[in-house]
# Entry
Amino acid sequence: MNAIENNDRFLSARFPVDVLSNPLTALVYEESFDIGKIFAAIAEHARGAGFRLGGVMEKPAAAPALGRRCDMHLQDLTTGQTIKISEERGALARGCRLDHDGLARICALVLSSLPDCDLILLNKFGKSEAEGGGFRCIISDALALEVPVYIGVPRRNLAAWQAFAGDFGTEVEAAALFAAFVAP
# Structure
């Protein structure tokens, strides 16, 4: 049984198979939606079913000091290692705070564990991915290994996601999935 067939078995135990059974599934959400909650539920259920998880989830950071934006940390789901992916640019800095080195390091961790994974969870198809970088290498390598990928896609990046995923991806409204299968 390959990872895609395992994915269907896992999903049928908690979620309807037709909702998340595609090898590449985008959980589309509004900025106000806490995508981390649905990924936490999927991760908990998958681990409980004996799945070997790969990918990343955002790790909550300490509350920022007054006048500062929050730090961003990603946790590798295989090793548990957490890497900061935001850079300190000063109180008056504007624009993207992504630390490209930190993002590259977390991608390398995930890529190294792909052959041993049954399911990949990626917290966000963000600006870096929309511009051609970020987690795109993880997605393509996972699909080549037939390992299913679930990724959060903010609605503002949906067009870029669709251009990238083409016919290989499917989209699910994250809030509806959460309300129907996680919240009750």
